[in-house]
Amino acid sequence: MELNLQGKVIIVTGGASGIGEAIVREAAKEGAIPVIVNRSTDRGMQLSNELKNAGHECLYVQADLSKEDQCRRVIEETIQALGKIHVLINNAGINDKISLETGNPEAFMRSLQNNLLHYFALAHYALPYLKQTKGNIINISSKTAVTGQGGSSAYIAAKGAQLSLTREWAVELLPFGIRVNAVLPAEVLTPMYQKWLEEFDDPDQKIKEITRKIPLENRMTTVEEIAYTVLFLASDRASHTTGQYLFPDGGYTHLDRAISNP
Ligand code: NAP
Questions:
Q1: Counting beta carbons within 10 angstroms of the beta carbon of residue 67, is it exposed (0 to 12), middle (13 to 18) or buried (19 or more)?
Q2: Ligand 1 pocket, Cβ-based, cut-off 6 angstroms
Q3: Which helix (H) or strand (E) holds 192?
Q4: What confidence tens digit (pLDDT) does each residue in 188-226 have?
Q5: Which residues of 107-128 are buried (b: 16+ CB within 10 A; e: fewer)?
Q6: pTM of the model
Q7: Most-buried pick from 100, 138, 241, 246 (CB within 10 A)?
Q8: How far apart are CA 137 and CA 123, in angstroms?
Q9: Which residues in the chain show pLDDT less than 70?
Q10: 155 counts as catalytic
């Protein structure tokens, strides 16, 4: 199946690490033009140079997305350089563990600023251009939005809101033919996940405990498997799919617990 993504401008926030990086790499392989948005200049710049040296077209925009004016600048720089936006992939985020008991309202708001504000701000500023291309939006949420996690009130609030916004925007943008969908990863070994694992005394043991509970093949989902799902949704092969939540997670969120705890 041909995804027809050649020449499509795809903004990927958090595009130089983990899931975002995989989306960027796979998008480039499909002939799309990924726009890598990251806070850390080195990693984004390195990836951009690597892709350009390999003959791909791409753009790097450094931005701290917790700042609204920087979200606006991401869209402006993309339009200045490439003239169009076909897909916005809201992906940047961090599980900063603001808990109900040990966190505080100020930290909660700061976390929403870092994890949620830019999903709205980028969609808002990109909208005029998405209307021109009849483009689409994909929000990367998390299975924790529907299962909870414990100790992460602010991150989970952001992840839940991203799902609600997916449905809300899918409705609001129907008249423009703009599709909006969400992808919910569960257990994917990225730098963020690795950092979390290292909080345990025995990370190897912890990962064994986790993968034992993942029904399909008792393994983590790869970053590429998330990227394939995202790029399918981004493509016109998903032309009648909107307002949906997809869980590429080996059945972790929904299959009967009896399967993984016999
Ligand atoms: P990651 O490897 O840490 O990548 C996240 C990226 O987001 C980083 O490159 C980071 O850039 C960027 N970022 C975060 N806040 C930013 C900001 N304010 N401005 C600009 N860039 C920012 O994490 P990941 O695991 O791939 O996570 C990607 C998405 O998947 C997140 O939304 C996460 O919630 C979701 N997710 C992941 C898993 C999993 O198992 N890994 C599970 C469920 C959901 P810098 O490094 O430059 O700060």
A1: middle
A2: 14, 16-20, 38-40, 63-66, 91-94, 114, 140, 142, 185-188, 190-193
A3: helix 191-197
A4: 999 999 999 999 999 999 999 999 999 999 999 999 999
A5: bbebbbbbbbbbbbbbbebbbe
A6: 0.98
A7: 138
A8: 8
A9: 261-262
A10: yes
